[in-house]
Amino acid sequence: MAAVTETHSFVRDGATYRESLRDGREVWYRGQRVEDVTTHESIGGLVEVIAKLYDDQQAPETAELLTYVREDGARVATSWLAPRTPEDLVRRRLCCEHFAWETFGTVGRAPDMISWTQTGLLAHLPTFRRYSPEYADNLVGYQEHAAANDLLLAGVIAEPQGIRSRSARAGEDRSAVFRVTRETADGLWLSGARTAGSIAIYANEILVSTIFTTRPDESVWVTIPVASPGLKLICRETTAHPGASRYDHPVAARGDEMDSLVVLDDVFVPRDRVFSYGAPQLQSQIFYSQISRGEHWNVLDRLCVKAEIFAGLAQLVVEALDVTSVPMARDAVAKVIQYAQILRAGVLAAEMLATPSEGGILLPDVNVISATRAYALDNYSEIVHVIQELCGQGLVMRFSEADFDHAELGERLELLLAQPAISAREKNRLMNLVWDLTTDGHAGRSALFENVNATPSFILRQKLYGEYDRAAFAERIKAAVGLTTRE
């Protein structure tokens, strides 16, 4: 990207982001209304994690990575860069990897993730103009609005797990189905519910749609400010350890990417936040597969970083336990390295095989993404098991910071558990980190989310079967051996 003189900046810092959440949003946790998500004991921890990511956009050592200067002289977040060159894709990838490392790969909806989905819509602007010309050009204005306000966008497209709220099963009673209840010259009114609402309570706006309907009145792409009247977010129980020592829970004490049920009771959506309405062609699984190429590449890249974190953890464990010369230990570490390297190859291959969309935006290769993500999910539990086995007794016999701070207990623990290269206290700190990333309920939620909400490997293989073109391979084999088939 050619150098441009910076004239003004739209980049937020952590304090500005934090303040943006104090907007009267309706959030519920364990049956009680949350007055301020930034200070709530079970919720506020992740606000600080995300605020740090926004602060990184201002930090001298990371500002050039996480932001860029547009041709008009405005500095904006890389999260809202619509890539049109290979260099743009590299910038988006490195931004994703920074956020993933800063969150140990456990926050699936960092500021650069759902922005990819919105960019995917813009990438197919000609199709939106074809099927929903009345609203399509709002995509252009919204991209500018989001960049100018450095928004954190959440996304919900899935139906809740209830028979009355599922479009295909609700029958004639549509009272619980996500739908448009009325349309005026000013905009649309929506009712129903969407899930899983990951990071929605920490977002500024939510991208709302569906890919499970053919009914025009249930076919929309819109964004909704989280504080909109009638929008209610009902949170699941946290898997974090709020208030815990960072020694005892290095990751889980930081907070939880909270999932929530997004309930809409006659929520008004202004006309400029509507991108399509009444066009089921824009809600199909096939179309979503195309618009989500960047989003799913982001998922794969974060999984790759998490695999590299696992590789680093595995090496630290064998060094701490003084088993680096043991062939079985070396083989176990190599398995984790192999996993990480295959994911890295997939990330880079999808980037190198990227093609421009009909709207001129460069999107990574969908088939490489699906194949590598399926491999990642199929082998994730095995890699976790390898790391757990490497830790052995150390992962089971973990002790608290208070134990080590106690004069008598701490001395005894050091005597019994120290290793040649590491003290008992520091070895225990490492085991606590492994616990949080592989075994704790916080880790369980992360693994479950990857495999269920972010698309199971079975579905990814179904995508491959439908989208990967192998006809030329088949024809070449037929020609080589003289094989004939009936028409």
Show the helix and strand layout.
Elements: E1 8-9, H1 14-20, E2 26-29, E3 32-34, H2 44-56, H3 63-66, E4 67-69, E5 74-77, H4 86-102, H5 114-123, H6 125-131, H7 138-149, E6 153-156, E7 179-184, E8 187-194, E9 205-208, E10 220-225, E11 231-235, E12 260-270, E13 274-277, H8 285-291, H9 293-320, H10 327-352, E14 355-356, E15 362-363, H11 366-391, H12 393-396, H13 401-405, H14 407-417, H15 424-438, H16 441-451, H17 457-467, H18 471-481
Parallel strand pairs: 1-5, 2-11, 6-9
Antiparallel strand pairs: 2-3, 4-5, 7-8, 8-12, 9-10, 10-13, 11-12, 14-15
Helix pairs in contact: 1-2, 4-9, 5-9, 9-10, 9-11, 9-15, 10-11, 11-15, 11-17, 15-16
Written description of the protein model:
With 487 residues, the protein is of the alpha+beta class. It contains 18 helices and 15 strands. It has helices at residues 14-20, 44-56, 63-66, 86-102, 114-123, 125-131, 138-149, 285-291, 293-320, 327-352, 366-391, 393-396, 401-405, 407-417, 424-438, 441-451, 457-467, 471-481; strands at residues 8-9, 26-29, 32-34, 67-69, 74-77, 153-156, 179-184, 187-194, 205-208, 220-225, 231-235, 260-270, 274-277, 355-356, 362-363. Helix content is 46%, strand content 14%. It folds into two domains: 8-286, Butyryl-CoA Dehydrogenase, subunit A, domain 2; 292-473, Butyryl-CoA Dehydrogenase, subunit A, domain 3 (Up-down Bundle). The longest helix has 28 residues, at 293-320. A hairpin with a 4-residue loop joins strand 4 (67-69) and strand 5 (74-77). The termini are far apart.
